[in-house]
Design brief:
The two termini are about 25 Å apart. Strands 7-6-5-4-3-2-1-8 form an 8-stranded parallel sheet. Helix content is about 40%, strand content about 20%. The protein has a single domain, classed as TIM Barrel (Alpha-Beta Barrel), CATH 3.20.20.10. The protein is built from 9 helices and 8 strands. The longest helix is centred in the N-terminal third of the chain and has 26 residues. The radius of gyration is 17 Å and the shape is globular. It is α/β, with parallel strands linked by helices. Strand 6, helix 7 and strand 7 form a beta-alpha-beta unit. The structure holds pyridoxal-5'-phosphate. Pyridoxal-5'-phosphate (PLP) binds next to strand 8 and helix 9.
């Protein structure tokens, strides 16, 4: 019975989110079809994820290597992204199976992705994560070191920098993150203007359950939504 309930909840949440995305896009002069909704599927079991895929979710993102590996063979066809912190020694487990890694936070990590991708004769798309709130506890490049790192990373074979990603500081006020979204958008546009070889600024991944509409209004092209789609996570299973 809970199964039924969960799917109903998903249907309602998904309809609401689609509507909100459309409105935020139109309000700010963007085409709603240019905004990608990625479902953040940590702790959500594969049956529920596949239900969501059946309903139209095309992109999913996992943030833990072990969890991704245990689920990956069971997902229905979809675009699979990795969105969590990635250790270099886990890169080889992820690279064969994902389309985009959102969370590249060091040259060292990009180099490892490059190495593993070359072994497979593939090019892995990556985003550079920016620690936009300059928080000690978070990974990501600092704003002022981003460009130099991008220049070096874009020289690596086997990786292609597709854009930027950020997780702004936890914020309890509505719209409190707008200033960080604005800063991210500025970085994104400034870098795009530089036309750096072997990189393209197409994806700006920012905005989660509490702030995705603001993120879209400030220029996000991809939002990563978990709780607002699937309900509260059950961390006991972690
Ligand atoms: C879990 C997660 C999200 C989604 O968070 P919600 O607040 O549940 O929408 C987005 N991005 C990353 C990197 C995550 O790990």
């Amino acid at each position: 019975m809970t199964e039924k309930l969960l799917t109903d909840v998903f249907d309602e949440n998904y309809a609401e989110i689609k509507k909100n995305i459309e409105k935020a896009a139109l309000d700010s002069g963007k085409n709603p079809n240019d905004i990608i909704l990625l479902a953040a599927t940590k702790t959500v079991d594969v049956d529920r994820i596949n239900y969501a895929i059946g309903k139209g979710i095309d992109y999913i993102g996992e943030n833990k290597v072990q969890e991704f590996l245990s689920k990956r063979q069971d997902y229905s066809p979809c675009h699979k992204h990795f969105i969590g912190h990635l250790q270099t020694n886990k890169v080889k487990d992820i690279v064969p199976f994902v389309e985009l890694i959102h969370s590249v936070d060091s040259y060292h990590l990009a180099k490892e992705i490059s190495k593993e991708s070359k072994k497979l004769s593939k090019v892995t798309d990556i985003l550079l994560e920016v620690n936009i709130g300059e928080e000690e506890s978070k990974s990501g490049f600092k704003k002022d070191e981003l460009l130099d790192n991008l220049m070096e990373i874009s020289k690596l074979e086997g990786v292609f920098v597709k854009g930027l990603m950020a997780i702004p500081p936890m914020c309890h006020q509505k719209d409190g993150n707008i200033k960080y979204f604005k800063e991210m958008y500025k970085l994104f546009i400034d870098i795009r203007g530089k036309n750096i070889d072997n990189s393209g600024m197409e994806i700006l991944s920012m905005g989660m359950s509490d702030d995705y509409e603001a993120a879209i209004r400030e220029g996000a092209t991809m939002v990563r939504i978990g709780t607002a789609l699937f309900g509260k996570r059950n961390y006991n299973k972690d």
